[in-house]
Specification:
Shape: elongated
Strand content: 15-25%
Bound molecules: cytidine-5'-monophosphate
CATH architecture of the largest domain: 3-Layer(aba) Sandwich
Number of domains: 2
Radius of gyration: 24 Å
Strand order of the largest sheet: 12-11-8-13-16-17-19-20
CATH superfamily of the largest domain: CoaB-like
Number of helices: 13
CATH topology of the largest domain: Rossmann fold
Distance between the termini: 17 Å
Number of strands: 21
Helix content: 25-40%
């Protein structure tokens, strides 16, 4: 069955290019369902898009595709991808505000499918920090953007604001749809956050992990239709919608939660920063400052990922390696020792990488020896890229 692309067209002069885009998508055998904003119809007619897509074109919120369906809900449900091209500053701001004041905005708000936006506008509008803030905000929630190109704009100036070439937009759409196809229905187990190893009833050993990377992966995997279980140590983050959250505290609890879901998992992504050691004894009462020094005796916690590697039955195993020295050597050793398919290595000493921050800078090491260094990107964008790479392992 062909995949459904909802193509949203908004009121930019570049709307005429949406006809070529629709035609390329149809040639790729996607089922294309066009929603136009009323402003878009001033630039190109619904009839043109109807002829190209061979499907009805929707403009009005109250024109239902079938008498028994509610327009925005039925299109939102059917979509495997929502592509908005061209996307004006106006639709970007309305999506960021959570508005549902026309059929396109309402469909996007109701949809679970990935949303890809290709902005096109005057260079001043595009550069405006208000718009840039909205784009950054939406990226944090997993919306995908294709940057406009630089060149001569319809308004006569030269700058960044031209709609990306349709072929570029189609290949970005392809990537999202392929990723979606590969992961839909797959059972993905993600771990995230730190663990806490208690010393006494009020104190613990832990680390600076925020859980952001693992939560971003879990949310993105869910948006791609996977069945996601998120085993999380204490994190100050809301669990992504639709994800089954299993809260844990200690490495031992994480071990038990992960092992109990392991048999059913197709893919395990271990983004948690698990404590390697725990106090040998947990004091029953609060430790008193009775002496000038206190020696803590620590013992190893179970290495969950190593255990999973030893008991692998076809699952894809992905680990993280956070290092402060000899990044590739240490990460490569982990890949082999723990029988991983992929390890995501980050150097904690580089700015913009690792714990707490919203961005990450990583190198991927595969079990076949391949190494890919990715550019710095937000953890949300990285989650999408990682899932594309992981999906490629099972296609
Ligand atoms: O060996 P190292 O702790 O650096 O390996 C990091 C990877 O192993 C991460 O994916 C982490 O989630 C996992 N790990 C684990 N159990 C531990 C320690 C690390 O699963 N006790």
């Amino acid at each position: 069955m062909s995949m459904n692309v909802v193509l949203g067209i908004t009121g930019s002069i570049a709307a005429y290019k949406a006809a070529e885009l629709a035609s390329l998508l149809v040639k790729k055998e996607y089922a294309v369902h066009v929603i136009m904003t009323p402003a878009a119809t001033k630039f190109i007619t619904p009839l043109t898009l109807q002829a190209i897509s061979q499907n009805p074109v929707y403009v009005d919120m109250f024109d239902s595709p079938g008498s028994w369906e509610i327009g925005h809900i039925s299109l939102a449900r059917r979509a495997d991808l929502i592509l908005v091209a061209p996307a004006t500053a106006d639709i970007i701001a309305r999506i960021a505000a959570g508005m549902a004041d026309d059929l396109l905005a309402a469909t996007i708000l109701a949809a679970r499918a990935p949303v890809l936006l290709a902005p096109a506008m005057n260079d001043g509008m595009y550069a405006n920090p208000v718009l840039q803030e909205k784009i950054a905000y939406l990226k944090r929630f997993g919306y995908h953007f294709i940057e406009p190109e630089s060149g001569r704009l319809a308004c006569g100036t030269v700058g960044q604001g031209r709609l990306a070439e349709p072929a570029r937009i189609v290949s970005a759409a392809d990537r999202l749809l392929e990723g979606g196809k590969a992961l839909a229905g797959k059972r993905i187990l993600v771990t995230a956050g730190p663990t806490r190893e208690p010393l006494d009833p009020v104190r613990f050993l832990s680390n600076y992990s925020s859980g952001k990377m693992g939560y971003a992966i879990a949310g993105e995997a869910r948006r791609r239709g996977a069945d996601v279980t998120l085993v999380s140590g204490p994190a100050q983050l809301a669990p992504p919608a639709g994800v089954e959250l299993v809260p844990v505290e200690t490495a031992q609890e994480m071990f038990e939660a992960v092992v109990s879901s392991y048999d059913q998992a197709d893919i395990v992504i271990k983004a948690a920063a698990v404590s390697d050691f725990r106090p040998r004894q947990r004091a029953g009462q609060k430790l008193k400052k009775l002496s000038a020094e206190l020696m803590l005796e620590l013992e190893r916690t179970p290495d969950i990922l190593r255990y999973l590697g030893q008991h692998k039955q076809g699952q894809i195993l992905v680990g993280f390696a956070a290092e402060t020295e000899d990044l590739l050597v240490n990460a490569g050793a982990k890949l082999k020792e723990k029988h991983l398919d992929l390890v995501i290595a980050n150097n904690l000493t580089e700015p913009g990488a690792g714990f707490g921050v919203d961005t990450n800078l990583v190198t991927l090491l595969y079990s076949n020896g391949e190494i890919i260094k990715l550019p710095m990107m937000s953890k949300i964008e990285l989650a999408g890229t990682l899932l594309d790479k992981i999906a490629a392992l099972i296609i």
